[in-house]
Amino acid sequence: MLVTRRDGQLVLVTQPGHAAFAGWLAEHWGNEQFVVPAPRDALLTAATHHDDGWLELDGRPMYNAEQRRPAHFIELPLTETVGPYGDGVESVYARDVHAGALVSMHFSGFYTGRWGVGGGTPSGNELAQEVVATQEARWMPALREAWGYRGRRSEFDAATWHAYEVLQAVDLLSLAHGLMDLERPAPHGEPVDVTTTLARIEQLPGPRVVTGVPLRAGGPHVPIMVTVAEAGLVLLDPYPLREPVLEFALPVREIDDHPYDSAEDAARAFHAAPVRHVELTLTHAP
Questions:
Q1: CB within 8 Å of 254: residues ≥ 6 apart
Q2: Rounded to whole angstroms, what are the CA distances from 26 to 46, 166, 200, 242?
Q3: Strand pairing of 208-214 and 192-193?
Q4: Rounded distance, CA 157 to CA 138, Å?
Q5: 136-154, pLDDT tens digit by residue?
Q6: pLDDT tens digits for 180-208?
Q7: 3 and 69 in contact (C-beta within 8 Å)?
Q8: What pTM does this model have?
Q9: Residues 6+ apart with CB under 8 A from 264
Q10: List of residues 6+ apart from 164 with CB closer than 8 A
Q11: Which of 46, 183, 213, 224 has its CA 20 to 30 Å from the CA of residue 260?
């Protein structure tokens, strides 16, 4: 669950809602500047279902007992998420082995600086290291199966890593939209890296930037700036999507921002809140 505080309300976006937007971005990805990854179908499945492991967790939803509210996704310890998220990865393998490998790479990438895309150093957490080892062992034979000894393995692997990097891009672009206030224009200023905002319940106004977005397999890589120009109008610069103007409705729930005495109390408020769709128009910067 993505949780942000805004105007006396907690704005909630479920992980499946976020993933649906990521899948939609992947479906429309590509133009003269941004090449569509070769395993497009696998990418679409991976992007749409990469957070299926959260279905169980968001269905409750999880509770932050210290803050007495629904838990923001990044607040949950790995001990609580590793099982459900791992089950979600396996469910994607059941849909498509290549897509499953991409989501397996995504899961382990949380603890490896997104395999170099996000920089940083690997996590020293013992359970995180176990996740990395388990997922690597899972995706290696899966990719061999998906390749099927057709064509050059080097080309297949390059295309797979390209798809992985686009998966990271659509994931972070979707997270940016799920956390930003999309219904009021953002003030001008230096864009803030989306990855530095993920833990914030109270989001600062202003543009965001997603770094490390590939133009094609092997790079080069560029940053994409995300700006809310006016209510519901989002500018992407450079613009990575096929159609020059696209519309999407992001589902959100809103509950009162006050202490909830128990997980059950917070869950009742969440489930009672109607789903509201924030109408978005995405286009290129002028």
A1: 9, 10, 11, 12, 273, 276
A2: 9, 8, 26, 10
A3: parallel
A4: 16
A5: 999 999 999 999 999 999 9
A6: 999 999 888 899 999 999 999 999 999 99
A7: yes
A8: 0.96
A9: none
A10: 102, 105, 106, 109, 115
A11: 183
